[in-house]
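Next comes a single protein record:
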Amino acid sequence: MLWFLSKCSPLSLVSVGGLLAVCVATWGPVMAQDSQSLADHVSAARSKALEGKNCADPDQKRVKFKEALDLAMGALNDAANSTWDRDDHRQLLKEMGFSWIGKLSTEQQRAWLNTHGPTANSPSGRLMMAFVEWKLGSKVIALVRLGSIISGSPDSVASETAIQLILGIHYYRGDTRSFTKALNQFVDIAPNNRSSAWALSFYTWKSCQDRKPEQAYELNTRVIESKPGTLAAQAGEKLNQVMVAIEEGEFRTAVDIMAGFPEHYFRETLADQIIDTFLLNVDFRSIEKSKAALTRLMQTMTEVAESHPTRHFRHLAKCVKARVYENQRKVTQAVALLEEVLAKETGPLRPFESYTLSRIGRLLRARDPQRAIGHLERFRNSHGKSAGAEHYVMTLGRLYLKTGKPDKALEVFTWLEDRRKRGETITEKKSKTGIQLGLIASLERLGRNDEAQALAQQLLAPYGYGKDPSDLTRTQRKKLASLLASMGRGTEAARYRPK
């Protein structure tokens, strides 16, 4: 059994649905063979889905969407891996997993899975089965199926998504150790898979963001030595060169090396980490020690922002400067630069759109909540279904409460809660608690007190609410005190707070 399967607890993992929103949006086109048969299959499936969408009768609607799913599974099973265009593959998975399957009842989804599961004979077909299995609660079975895709077809388009799903599960659990072990295994099994190479870049940027570049350098060096000539080794070599250049203050050299990276290395999921990597030698707590490095960094980023031939690097440079301004508490300058970037994030590849929208919303939430709301609404509409987006969408809901719009807040928190219940978002306890606290506050502001109290009771009951504090553990009391304080029930919170 693959290592990552033996270490996963199915009850504590995050949603594959939420991660698929990131994974299916990660790759650009791949060279594909012309296949009219495949195009016909996909077109027929989409026509059936359109019929279902326009069907007024609920039963007939479900029939049409089931037929669409059947046709799409035929395309996934019958088409050779090399036949797929990555964009088509990505879009079809997105439609099947987020739209069509959701139109069926839970029992119909299970029946559809039982029909197609035994005959899913291609990596792409098995990938869709894994998604539905996870959605229906069969998490271990889904993980085993993902593992079989990676080990059996390591270079397939389906394996690209499967690798990212597994690594995303560990990352969004905050389990860096398991992420690192799984990544080590994937670069050994699939060193020529784009996801393995991409994941090395993610690991490198994240390690630098955490001020631990040495651990990324060590892993990259191992891959270079053990898998020479592979995509992963090529990525590791370039990534090490970038880290060395930044450590030595040669920021333009780092940018020039990065200019040779494949375009998909600059997807939105990496923006935050890449920006912080350029601040590796700057300590804002002791700025005098970093003054020379900071001056050189700002000079270089100004030059790159003004003259680099590639838009992505001009935008990267402005975002790095904005992060410096943010750390210097120059919020106005930071926001101005981020809005410059946002205004020019156009076209199919917009690696800094998600970052700038969420960052501006965060920076303005206290000083200009109305402007923050505008940016966070746009973030929600364009990126709200991505894994990890819940934090910013919850901020949007809280801003609606702050600005006296509880009806808008209720709509936002209800949207988050519905997605959480459908298994389409991260189900960590912290996210669940934040969403439900938002619902309670919104209902109370709207005068729907009975509903608010019922939901509050559901949230508090698992920790022993209503019992004598002396009968509860210290952990239970701390949790109840925290929840009650968040609900504005200070007197009760004080009663449960541990001495």
The two ends are 48 Å apart (CA to CA). Residues 440 and 494 are 20 Å apart (CA to CA). The mean pLDDT is 87. Residues 58-78 form the longest helix (21 residues).
